[in-house]
Amino acid sequence: MEQLIAQLNQYNYHYYTLDNPIVSDKEYDRLYDELVALEQDSGIVLPDSPTQRVGGETLSGFEPHRHQARLWSLDKAQDMDSLEAWHQRVLRLINDYNSKNPDKQLPDPSFVVELKFDGLTLNLTYTDGQLVQASTRGNGVMGESILPQVKTIQSVPLTIPYKDGTIEVQGEGIMNLSVLQAYNETAAEPLKNARNAAAGALRNLNPQVTATRKLSAYFYNIGYAESKIFADHQEMLQFLRDNKFKVNPYAEYFSSMDELKAELLRIQERRASLDFLIDGAVVKLTDMRTREVLGYTDKFPRWAVAFKFEAEETSTILESVSWNV
Ligand code: NAD
Question: Where is the active site (predicted)?
Answer without folding.
Answer: 116 (n6-amp-lysine intermediate)
